[in-house]
Amino acid sequence: MQSNREKFGKVGVLFGGSSGEREVSIKSGSAVLAALLRQGVDAQAFDPANQDLSELKSFDRVVISLHGRGGEDGTIQGALELMGVPYTGSGVMASSVGMDKWRTKLLWRATGIATPDFRLVNKESDFAAIEQALGLPLFVKPANEGSSIGISKVKEKGSLEAAYLLASMADPLVIAERFVGGGEYTVGILGNRALPIVRIVPKNEFYDYEAKYLRDDTEYLCPCGLSAEKEAQIQAEALQAFRVIGGRDWGRVDFLMDEDGQHYFLEVNTSPGMTDHSLVPMAAKAAGMSFDALVLEILNMTLEQK
To answer: Is residue 107 located within the same domain as residue 245?
Structure first.
């Protein structure tokens, strides 16, 4: 039987990078690297912030554990395509679109996938009119950031402009989004199947950076509490939402539920976290898959790339 060392060859694990999510990426990549080494894979760490990208040509394939800009926006994917090096996760287009919340929502709306109502915001916007149209509270977020960086919940009239200014420090493209308050959920995607849904119950205002990575009191419920019929419906739609942006192999689709039980897809993550707080490993575990097995299955998908 062919060993993992022979099967995969020399594998680079890309983590770190120079985005605002560098520290989270280091945690993800370190966990992935350790899992591969435990399973006999010839894996080595590679930090694009400190190493020349041309050195990636020495690898037979790479695992992308980069988050944020430069890692999940199509940039590193394009470089690897040009070098002819197989890599984990979505390709250039899907990575670029998935990173852009505004364009993701435009695609979903055009294909009939429910997403919370939204408006683009800029310095010339009629802030009062947007508050009126979307209602309060509402969320303001940079279109091209992850890990809840730059996100604000606007609860009082006249506060949208300040929230816009905060978000625009992270990205010039800013969206305001209608509040949907019946619960936060996520669906992990692995190959052609959706993993069990996880419900997220933060103890602070919303599922922000602190709740994601620093607090230990955020609750993750899997089983998520939805009926089997409703969960199956949302899983099927999540796969469709992932495919609409061109996603492949693995990822995560987040959604919200309103008080009447209607769900709205929020965004796609094409390079999800793989830390001890991360959601895809949690869902995989509920489906009977260990962290090590999950990492190896994701790597195995690179063998199918031409």
So the answer is: yes
